[in-house]
Known about the structure:
Layout: E1 5-8, H1 15-26, H2 35-46, E2 50-51, E3 57-58, E4 64-65, E5 71-74, E6 84-90, E7 96-103, H3 114-122, E8 126-127, E9 132-133, H4 138-144, E10 152-162, E11 168-184, H5 186-195, H6 200-219, E12 228-234, E13 237-243, H7 247-270, E14 272-277, H8 296-307, H9 317-321, H10 329-338, E15 346-351, E16 361-362, E17 367-368, H11 379-393, H12 399-405, H13 408-435, E18 442-450, E19 457-462, E20 468-472, E21 485-494, E22 498-504
Amino acid sequence: MPRLHMHVTDAAESPLRLALHELRGRLETPDHFPPTAQAEADSAARAPRIPAADGAVAGEHTLEDATDLPLFTLDPPGSPDLDQAVFLARRPGGGYRVHHALADIAAFVTPGGALDAEAHHRVTTLHFPDERVPLYPPVLSEGAACLLPDRDRPAVLWQLDLDADGAPAGVRVRRALVRSRAGLDHAAVQKSLDDGTAEEPLALLREIGQLREEQEVARGAISLNVPEQDIVEEDGRYRLAYRAPLPVHGWHAQISLLTGMAAAELMLSAGTGILRTLPSPTHAPAQGGHPSPEGSVARLRLTARALGVDWPHHTSYAALLRTLDPRRPAHAAFLQDCAALLRGAGYTAFDGTAPPASEVLHAAVAAPYAHATAPLRRLVDRYTSELCLAASAGTEAPSWVRGALAGLPEEMELGTRRAHRVERACADLVEAALLRDRVGEVFEGMVVEIQEADPTQGTVHLVDPAVIGPVEAAPEGPALPLGRRIPVRLAEADPGHRPVRFTAA
C-alpha cells in the first residue's frame, strides 16, 4: 500500500512537533534498540558475514565482485536508508537489461539473535511527519548496510532482461559486492531528462519506465501516485500544501514493481515463497463503516462527489486514477483517500506447493507480486531475497527462512496494522492542528459513511479543507443523509488530545 507522505516544516519546538513527540509516547513506539540488539548491529557493521545457501556463514571469497557496475540510487533528498540502486543498459541483441541491487541486510543479521528478534518485533519502519522509527539500527540502515555512494556494500543483485516492448525475458539473482557511483534525487534527474542532458542510463529510466507503464495499463493494474503533504505553519496557523509526484517517480517505481513481480514468479516456480496479495477493490470490505453493499469503492464515489472529481459511471477505478492530476488540490486530496482502498492486502506463504492462481493475485498490480525492494524498512523483504536467491540457483531455501515462513504473514499483518494506526493517528493530529482555531465554524461536507447500527453517526468529508472526520446528527434531528452535502459545525479540534469531530448544523 502506498503510505501517506506527510512532512512537518515548522520549528523543532513547535506545538505540532511536541504533540507528535507525545503521540509516539502514547503509541509506545520504541525510542531505542535493546543493548544486546545494538551490540550485535555494531559488531556486524564492522564485519558483515555473507550467508551461505544452508544458512551458515560463508567467507568473503564467496561474494561476486560487481563493483564495476555504475549503479546509482534515486531517492528524496536527505533519505537516510538507501536500500536499492540501479543501472540500466541496452542488450546487444535488442531490448534492455536492468541491474537492480538491494541492500543485503541478511549479511548483518544473525538468524535467532537479538537483532533478529527485535526486527521481528518491529516488523516495519514507522514514519511520522517529523521523524522515522527505524526497523534496524541506524549503524546498519543508514551506514554499513546502506547503499551509500562510493562505498563497497554487500547486495542482492538482480539482473532483469526485457524485450524491446519492456516485457520480461529473463532473470538472475545472486549475491555480489557493489558500489553505487552516485546518490541522485528525483527533481535533479527529472530536470536532466527534460532538458536532454541525461546520460543513457538515466535516459533509459524514462524509456523503460514508459514501456512498463504501457504494460501496466494492458494488465488493467491500478497506478496510484499519492502526492506528498507538507504541513506549513504561517502566522500561527497551519495549512496543507500538496506536492505532486514527478514522472520520474513513476518510472523509478516501475523498476521496483518489475522486481517484485519477478520475485513472485521465481518463488511460485520454486514452490516456496511469500507473496503480497490483494483482493479486487470492488470486493474489499469498507474501512470502518458500511457505505454501500457494493464495497469501499462506493464510498470513494461519494468522496469524489464531495471533492468535485468527475467519475463517470462507465469508468473503472483503475481508469479514473490515470485521469487524475495530483497538481490539482481536489485530485490530490482524492488520491490521498484512494490509498485506503489498498489496505485489504495480506501475505500468502507457501512451502512445497504453490497456491492456486486464484489465491496469488495482487489486484492493484494485476499479477502475482512480492515485497522485495525495501529490505532496510520491511522485515519480509529479507526473506524474499533469500527465497529468490535459492530459486535462481536451483537450491533449497535456508532452513531459517523456511522455518519462519508459516508465521510471517501474521507478523507482517500485525506490523502493518501498527503502521496504519500510526498513520491514522498522525492524520488525526494534523487535521486537528489545521482546524484548531476554527471550532464552532460551519463547513460544507459530504456524508460518505453512516454506521449501520446507528444512522445518526457517520463520517463526513469536508469540501474545503479536504478533512475527513466523524459526524453526528443534530439532537432531535433526522438521520444523516448518506451521499448528500450538508452543513456541519466543527465541535472539537485539539491536536494531540481530541481529533476533529463535527455535528450536523
